[in-house]
């Protein structure tokens, strides 16, 4: 069995030099929040996301969340339908109609193979309703350099 390079610490530097943006449209706007959700972020900091898949966006303002973390304080944002697939990486910026709404913290596989819970690090935990999101709004996930 091959060793997972993320679990074994093989990478001494970020292997993701450059990548294209992932884009989609908001399919569902969500409301609701929990204080003890218990999401288990996987160790791997990246996921390949295919065109036409639908995945859930969840916001958290917990300090220090990253791949491998348990996340309790969450707000539901929405479901996004992917129009241009690609690779999403922890630290990527997520925009709604060109307005930043958070950064990728990691991925929870609770509902796989149906969908990923894509957890966003945010300064203020707000639901999709509180963010005034609307179905059909453009979602862009892009790499942040530097």
Describe this structure in words.
By secondary structure, this protein is mostly beta strands. 0% of the residues lie in helices and 44% in strands. The chain contains no helices and 12 strands. The protein has a 7-stranded mixed beta barrel with strand order 1-7-5-11-10-9-12. The chain has a two-stranded antiparallel ribbon with strand order 3-6. β9 and β10 (99-108) form a beta hairpin. The protein is globular, with a radius of gyration of 14 Å.
Contiguous helical run count? 0
What average pLDDT do the residues reach? 93
Question: Percent helix among the residues?
Answer: under 10%
Largest sheet: 7 strands, mixed, barrel
Short structural summary:
It contains no helices and twelve strands.
């Amino acid at each position: 069995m091959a060793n997972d390079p993320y679990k074994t610490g093989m990478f001494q530097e970020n292997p993701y030099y450059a990548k294209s943006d992932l884009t989609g449209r908001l399919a569902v706007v969500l409301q609701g929040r929990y204080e003890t959700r218990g999401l288990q972020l996987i160790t791997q900091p990246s996921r390949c996301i295919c065109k036409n898949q639908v995945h859930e966006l969840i916001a958290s303002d917990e300090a220090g969340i990253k791949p491998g973390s348990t996340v309790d304080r969450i707000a539901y944002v929405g479901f996004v339908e992917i129009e241009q697939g690609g690779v999403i990486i922890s630290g990527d910026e997520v925009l709604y109609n060109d307005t930043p709404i958070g950064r990728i913290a990691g991925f929870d596989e609770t509902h796989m193979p149906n969908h990923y819970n894509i957890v966003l690090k945010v300064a203020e935990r707000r639901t999709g309703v509180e963010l005034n999101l609307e179905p059909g709004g453009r979602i862009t996930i892009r790499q942040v350099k530097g």
